[in-house]
## 1
Amino acid sequence: MVRRWLLRHLTFYRLHAAYFLVLACVGAGLLWFCRRRERVGGSDGSPKLLDCVFAAVSALTVTGLLTVRVGDFSTLGMLVLLILMLLGSHVFTSLLPLYVRRFHFSRSPTHERQQVEKHCDTRQVQDKYLIAAYMSLEHKALITLCWLVPAYFVGVQLLGFLAISCYIAVGPPEVREVLQRESVNATFYGFFSTIAAFSNAGMTPLDENLISFPDPALLLPMSMLILSGNTMFAPSMRFIIWCLYRCTREKNPQKQVYEYLLMYPRKCFTHLFPQVHTVWLLITVVAFNAIDFVTFRSLDWNSAALKGMRTMDKLMAGLFQSINTRSAGMNVFILHELSAATLLLYAAMMSLYYESDLCIYRVKSWETDQVQDNKLSVQYRKLLSRDSAYLFLCILLICTLETRKISTDPLNYSVFNIVFEVISAYGNVGMSMGYSCALTKEENVTHSCEDVPYSLSGKWSANSKILLVAVMLVGRHRGLPDNIDSAIILPHNFITNILDTTCIFNHKKLNSN
Amino acid sequence: MVRRWLLRHLTFYRLHAAYFLVLACVGAGLLWFCRRRERVGGSDGSPKLLDCVFAAVSALTVTGLLTVRVGDFSTLGMLVLLILMLLGSHVFTSLLPLYVRRFHFSRSPTHERQQVEKHCDTRQVQDKYLIAAYMSLEHKALITLCWLVPAYFVGVQLLGFLAISCYIAVGPPEVREVLQRESVNATFYGFFSTIAAFSNAGMTPLDENLISFPDPALLLPMSMLILSGNTMFAPSMRFIIWCLYRCTREKNPQKQVYEYLLMYPRKCFTHLFPQVHTVWLLITVVAFNAIDFVTFRSLDWNSAALKGMRTMDKLMAGLFQSINTRSAGMNVFILHELSAATLLLYAAMMSLYYESDLCIYRVKSWETDQVQDNKLSVQYRKLLSRDSAYLFLCILLICTLETRKISTDPLNYSVFNIVFEVISAYGNVGMSMGYSCALTKEENVTHSCEDVPYSLSGKWSANSKILLVAVMLVGRHRGLPDNIDSAIILPHNFITNILDTTCIFNHKKLNSN
Ligand SMILES: [K+]
Ligand SMILES: [K+]
């Protein structure tokens, strides 16, 4: 009874939500115990419970907004943040449905095959061998992915870690000085930065994020990590599988598995797309970053934020910032020093997420893959009409809650900055305009005004923070389908789905074997 | 040849656009000759040509934004503005297709009837008497509307003019003092205000708009005029026709015409809706104004903008401002003194236009009237996805063009204020945050800083103003169909349209006669 009830009500969306809620609660509890208590009574005080919840949700949803300094948590607390980022990263969460499906496949293959044959008989499909071969290929493909994706996950981060560690060890001495001054272990810094970049969480152990190190030698591996952990994950996977396919000998049965993965990517994995889509994805990634960069280049090349930087550094920093706008949210600039037009474009880019973030098509079955080319516009329209209403309400509430601050400190708490923060939270980007004492009216500067190295939301009231926590969680679930994607079908729906597709399945390659 | 080419390429949209472009050019030329030249060399200078174009387009598109004072034009210039408002008002433009259709009907009824009969024969529809009766009814309905709508147009404005004139003559002496001080003729003021309110253009001959007179006795007739000229136009027309239907005796053939209008409103007039839609429209008008007012009541009841007002005045002023947010754009408050949340809501309301503004359904034919209930969401989604991209680009360009002003005077030229102005222009609302010296940084206050009584856009560069002119024009054409609405079908498409609908036409009432 309980099992049946569970199976009926457990949609992918609900499982996803439950996973995030449970981990957020556990994470917040752990952070609460790992906060630095010695800071109590200081200018900022020790993190409150709400700040711990905020940090846990921010790390888990890979947003990266913070209402306290990263340094307000002990090293153990940072480790908790690290684990939360790992568990919440897009690559990691894509693994779960993979293992669930593989488990199901290996558990009851005979029962399933019987069902398949029974069902297909009624549909007058005679070729049972075809179906058996297909089942076995799908199973093998799942097994392949079950080691390939973790290998990618570990491999890329290991490479990134090595590159960043090398930079810290061999690079300019200022980096080591900053780390020593802030008493951050160099290895830990490399470890943390790697995972934060790969999971696109955008936190670093240093309060100032990357503003202190606008060095191409550091920003390049970081960029690679950011891209391979999000927008470039699906294209990279396809490329790797294609390489494996090419390098495997004709007689090896594994070659057919790779070919199957390349031909029916959506049957097996949420982050594998057909060739056309993958190319299209690459084009959009390049185009969006190019738009960002060109705007930045033409409007902010000589702005205050880039003062004293060499041309090469400016170039890499601008490119890095463009890449970050899409999802990672790390900063090399103090954002409010950039021009309004650039910031407006960044806000638009944050709100305009596309498939690569979403990584799960809203397709009914794998056959429709070929006709779903105008995804971007459809998704964007849906997002706009449904979620924009909630987001607007949220912004309105925050403006209401912060009315007094808006009127006394209109430049820091401008409507645009609040909208920027909310969009950033919803898109899980984590960029923030921050808070600057230079922008407050002189008559309102109190004795304790201090530029805070965390997000603007850290200065908001508790209710606003709670709203933002909700926005981050909802944002992490944006665009998730219920159960319609064949790559994440749960066991109880699986048979019907397999049958729907198998009976149409008519792969000539299989026939020829 | 020319006639055929014209008929093929003249869609309703293009005719509409040509009408506005020609009138805008003529109006701008006239305003250029009617500017007050004696102000040359003053602090603001005489209006430049661009300002004349801006004013002409603003009046014609009933937006009401101005880059100069209304008083910078001579009385003759104001008269030009007045005529432009009249020619551009929604009620007036709704008359044009009506007369075109009536003209077509009366010109060649026999030819048409032949065509109808010929066409219907092929469709095996035998009842020719039915079609003849229908044709005659439609013709009579058009004739009825051709005097009813002008009567409404003149009648409502006459009543409004009388009410406002009475108020000026009998009301508190301060009003007359202000008018005398600004040397504005009282009758002219009443005349101008009436037309500006009814056409929803939102201009007044006084620089301060209505901020000097927050008197319920003036605001009430103004509200009535604003509502009956825009959101309440369609419901009022239906109500009047319903009254006429009720008051007409059973034997009078005109009774059948009214009944026909009530049953098939969309066949005859762009601003007549079926009963369900009319009720729904009323509900949305009330609901939207209620949301605006409740927000205002809860956030701004004690704000600086309402200082020194009595409760009754506050109530009426708040209600008036809510009504104005939808389209008219008259001000009783200095907007930037209101709370950020209220302003944000106003911005949203401006961008969220619904059918009553649009007044033309995107229906293929009148039969589908009954199933098009979820109009709002569909329209809103379409608007968002298509036009929001252009609007965003426009905002981005303006932010780029005004970069220097944004950085030196961030409170007056905040991103929100710029977005507010552009949305206001696009929605043809005409609310503006204005420019206030109190908001400039002290070090930047020049000797000549003067609070300007016109829109924020008056302080922008020429290129930005040109962009805004385009936005106003495009905004006035938002949601216009090409040729698909049966109520605006042009002669060359008319026959086919009539046939498509007539052959399905099966009105039992007609049969019984
Ligand atoms: K992020
Ligand atoms: K207006």
Note: The radius of gyration of chain A is 24 Å.
## 2
Amino acid sequence: PDDEIRDRAVARHTQLTKPVGSLGRLEELGAWVSACQGVCPPKPFERPRVVVFAGDHGIATQGVSAYPSEVTAQMVANFLAGGAAVNVLATAAGATVRVVDVAVAGETSPTVSKFKVRNGSGLIDREDALTAAETAAAVKAGRDIADEEIDGGADVLVAGDMGIGNTTPSAVLIAALTGSEPVAVVGRGTGIDDQGWMRKTAAIRDALRRARKVGADPVALLRTAGGADLAAMAGFLAQAAARRTPVVLDGVVVGAAAMVAEELAPGAREWWVAGHRSVEPAHAIVLDHLDLKPILDFGMRLGEGSGALTALPVLSAATRILAEMATFADAGIAGP
Amino acid sequence: PDDEIRDRAVARHTQLTKPVGSLGRLEELGAWVSACQGVCPPKPFERPRVVVFAGDHGIATQGVSAYPSEVTAQMVANFLAGGAAVNVLATAAGATVRVVDVAVAGETSPTVSKFKVRNGSGLIDREDALTAAETAAAVKAGRDIADEEIDGGADVLVAGDMGIGNTTPSAVLIAALTGSEPVAVVGRGTGIDDQGWMRKTAAIRDALRRARKVGADPVALLRTAGGADLAAMAGFLAQAAARRTPVVLDGVVVGAAAMVAEELAPGAREWWVAGHRSVEPAHAIVLDHLDLKPILDFGMRLGEGSGALTALPVLSAATRILAEMATFADAGIAGP
């Protein structure tokens, strides 16, 4: 983001017909959008776009989730039919939805499987999630998708996740990158019971043992303990930053991918805002690590980009304030 | 709100294609809207409406604000021209704006002065804000305006405030109703310096001495230490509740009026949700007293309904989730 433009946006805020600083965080967010766009006043968003990255995880067979892997493909169909939370929240926020099957276990519609890398990622407590070639293909898929969307006119992006078991590799990535212990990053995901929590903690512990050996290499980390969906999201987030496009981050899964993206492209986090703080304990670690302050703190834990989309209208409003409010001079009012 | 319908909405949430409880506070808000409407699923809002109550305060002549009273009428003109924060945020949230001059010091457009009670309310540190007749007229104006809007189809309401000096009587009302001390309720308002802060604290202290004598009578309190705008807002909020219409509350000024409205119509608060928590210290006291949890905590302090309007899209999204998401049965997915 352009610091000179940000300063100009901050200065413009003092000229708008309101007491200086009286819109608080809304002013900060508007100035950030202005800096991302490199123009002041900023342009209201015209094409917010959500990309949901769907993928399964072998670890789901180990009883770490309240749902079976079959639900991932069923939810992809639900996204395409428009019945999921992401569809409703995107429509409400003026965004459109794209679904990408990166590694769903099983067949999905050909409209979404162009970037498919494999059927489900590996059992990370004992084997690599991906081969080196698959990892590279998944990261590239994410980068290509970001390029396609930005070339298609998207002016603000959201990454969403769908994949039974995906909070387990996410927790492992977050622990590996922050030196956290399994119990600090394990959460209830879709809603597991105490037995499931113990199995999940053990799976994280075993996968983390493997992940720590490659913790300094983000691509190796994705290969060892991530998954194709996480790799694609990391590529997507890194490329959005390279293309100077603002992103609203979602919860713990996107957060794990964002932490890897920040390793791939240091400084990428400057192009992101945190939509919300989820209830997953590891998400607070992500926000702290990336130094991002959430817009909402709503106790959400769905994924799909749902938290980011709930917050998106707030970011849009912040942009419109800078773009559309009258100045003291316009309104003929004596300024402060 | 209808508790049986609320239970039905909570039950419906468990049937939607997402893990139980995974949308957190968004589920709570949707169930509340359903209960207010008395129907499940709830109807997405079609006519959100903001009414900005403008009024001046004699106390502004005592140096308690960073701006002179003339700014109130200038801002009313700005609202009518569409250049203020309330206009931009209302448009962004799909709401329309109505401006009402209840007690602006000076002339305003005839389109907004139909309910005008007087030119500025009294100097509350030494005299009553209003006569008994003016108080009754202002409360009735608020009630009539709520009726007009609801009869006109408004399905969610926001009250906004505009009036130089209005955080001073608001602080007095809040202190009188909660037994708080002046230093606990005084804030920086539009942005006063330390000298202004001391003058404001002294004004609150003197007005509070007068207000405490009538603290048990909400109408007398509005007369003694409130103002016509605050009285109208209290009437508006009480009547919206009587008409079973949900309201998104704004900051400290609307909050003060809401506390009085709850005294006028006990239980009215069940029909309100708090849009945000402002930086005014007295606003936290209001939220605590009314037992309301803010949607946003954004460091805002503008008034005009700005915080409520920034939060309104979140409430709208919560409503649409319940109304528009597919159920597990619809989507052919095995539920939890």
Note: Chain A has two domains: 3-43+320-331, 48-313.
